[in-house]
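Ticket #4471: structure output looks truncated?

Reporter: J.K.
Steps to reproduce: submitted the chain below (483 residues) through the standard prediction queue, then opened the result file.
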Amino acid sequence: MGKVSKGKLLLCVSIFLVSMLCAGLGLLCTEIYAMPLAEPLAATHTWSGSGTQTDPYLISNSDQLKELADLVNSKSTNPTYANKYYKQTADIDLNGGSLEPIGDYYNTPFKGNYNGGGYSISNFDVTTYSSTCMGFIGYASNATIENVSIISASISKNKDGSCIGGIVGSAYNSLVLRNCSVVNSDLSSSFVEEQVDNDYSENGAYAGGETSAEAYVGGLVGYCYGSIEIEDCSVQSSSISIIVKSAFEALAESTESDYAESEAEAGAYAYAYTGGFVGWVKSGSSIKIYGSMVGNCEIYGESYAYAYAEAFPERSYSNAYAYSKTYVGGIIGYAYNGYRTNLVVEIDECCVLNCDINGDADSFAYAYSSTDEGSDVYVGDLVGYVGYDLGYSDVTIQLFDIMITAGVDGRNDLAGYCERYDNLERVVVDVKDDNIYYTASDYYYENWALVNNKPLLKKFFWIAEFGDEFSYEELEILGYQEI
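Returned output as attached by the reporter:
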């Protein structure tokens, strides 16, 4: 065997060492990538409990509510506090202070269960935070809120896309509200979205654009994209309102040449969605509301769109269009289904008592060449609008044991617009304050009575004629049940 030169030997050794080094680095890299991802950032809190159903986190004061909001609203700590159970253990009076919404946006929502324990949260405002989702819970996803009482709250956001609710501002996926109440509160959104575009050019100018303004306000929930269930809840002696205005002005002028053409276009859209319980909801499954009441509330929506376009010289082109729509309902402002999915809106054993339910819409468009404008108002004592999305799908509203009392301007419309009703013979409406009930069918079905200004639900008892009067004792004999 021949001798190996020192140079070749050194080369072989070098190759061997490099190979071993690369193998080591590869193993190290493999180990690094195989390591599990770090857990969400640890967070500290001052409340007791472990966050389970049998041992919930216990919240007893406003500082702990703020602490909960800070932890849920942070991207780093939100996963740690998701899918947990919380229980309030005392009345919390903020004495006119501010409350930060719990759950900020889709990437930091409140997920889990909050049980108010039958205690109240009172005398606070939710107005100054940057989020457009405003309520006790700002943004919720797959959440259950129960036994929460909101008293004397002022919750508002004056910004395009605002979602305002007494309990939840905005919710996705699924939401359950059980035995919650909002009393003596002001829930509102009022703002103007306006833009101006002017162009002064020597030989032809262009100015144009469009603006939109919309808001969603509900006594319990402002905006919900998903299934929603409301049971044994109430909104009383509260104001629920929207006033939105959208405006765009465009002016294009050729400053030097009388022969150069200019062009101006302006568009404006305005939408208001107001509901005694829910402002806007889209669901591919179901909307269920049971045993709940809206009483002595003002429920109002208003939308206005204005578009103005003008171009010079005279042979120039200008176009303007303005559209506004308002949806107001004693229970739901606007509801529709998902693509190719059937939706059933079920409202059972609910009442709307002595509420002022109204809406308005207006639009104006001005241009030399062409204009288009339109305004629609859908106001219903129960639902403003129930419709369907594109595709082969069906939407039905089912009403069982409903009572509506005077204070709805004698309109007598259960819905401003609805694809189809079911079970109308079981709907009763009192519009004259004298216990005269009517339905859309030929039958008169008396399920409710007002005794000492309290609604009483009667077990199913047919009567041949309307207008019968009963004493409280007779009502008990006939099977009325107090709710």
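Triage note (M.O.): checked the attachment and the full token line is present. The chain has three helices and 37 strands.
Status: closed, working as intended.
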